[in-house]
Amino acid sequence: MELNVKDFATREDLENTVQSTEGLTAITGTIEELARLNLDHTSNIHGIHCVASDYTAPSPVDKPNRGEIFESSLDGAPLKKSKKTK
After folding, report:
1. How many Cβ atoms from other residues are within 10 Å of residue 17's Cβ?
2. pLDDT digits (tens, 9 = 90+) for 13-46
């Protein structure tokens, strides 16, 4: 069962309905409708996830090419372990 955000005038009305409704799986609405009640697509109300019907996830960012990786002068160096402090 899903609730639609546009059916509620205030966030308090929405929270009261969510508290008294069993079997609720999601709260849906557009980004603007959710924002009107100070919600977004990552919000949870009493453990019920809010879903923005018009939200599109941003595309993943390609990692920049940082050039050739050179050997470090510390590779193979005899390093001592740090002493434990009290």
Report:
1. 15
2. 999 999 999 899 999 999 999 999 999 999 999 9
- Tell whether pTM > 0.70: no
Q: Which residues of 43-76 are buried (b: 16+ CB within 10 A; e: fewer)?
A: eebeebebbbeeeeeeeeeeeeeeeeeeeeeeee
Phi and psi at 62, nearest 5°, equal: -70, 140
Sheet holding 48-52, edge to edge: 2-4, 26-29, 48-52, 44-45
C-alpha 11/C-alpha 66 separation (Å) is: 48
